[in-house]
Design brief:
mainly alpha
Length: 181
Amino acid sequence: MTDQPGATPPDPDHRAPHQLLDRIPGERYRPGGTGPGAGPGRPTSAGGAGPTSAAGTPGTAGSATRAGLAGLLAALGGALGYSLLGQLDLQLGFLVVAAFVGWVVGIAVVWGAGPSRIGRQPLVAAMLGGGAIVAGLLLAWLWAQREGGVLGPVDYMNQRYGPVAWIGGLLAAGIAAIRAR
């Protein structure tokens, strides 16, 4: 275009449709945002405290680490609760408890990830949900050992709970994975 005689040079502020923007359009509305859109009452320099979420609230952005920690805390609480309820003879009620533990772990992983979904989120939730039930069963076995038990962990689980122990672990893992999708 500029090779033609008498042609005016293009306007430097004019952008071709295929060019990318320097920053996203909504950035000027974020707390601590910069640019010409930071009007009265809005900060004009980047001085925010930590990462911001899509809603713009500081410190609420999710991450893979936060998802893992939230899921781990939920799994530890579920394991402790499952082992304490292991002192009661609930039998099939353990399946309901296992399903609830898996559901809570799945929600915790989703909450921890926030709006930024992590890769293999259902797999992480399933491993933590199933691991919570296994950890709860191992805690119940340790309690039995302390009271004078002589069986190994697998023999104890098979004789004390039967197939409910193994089904509960699979159920918690499955529900956690489904909930974390």
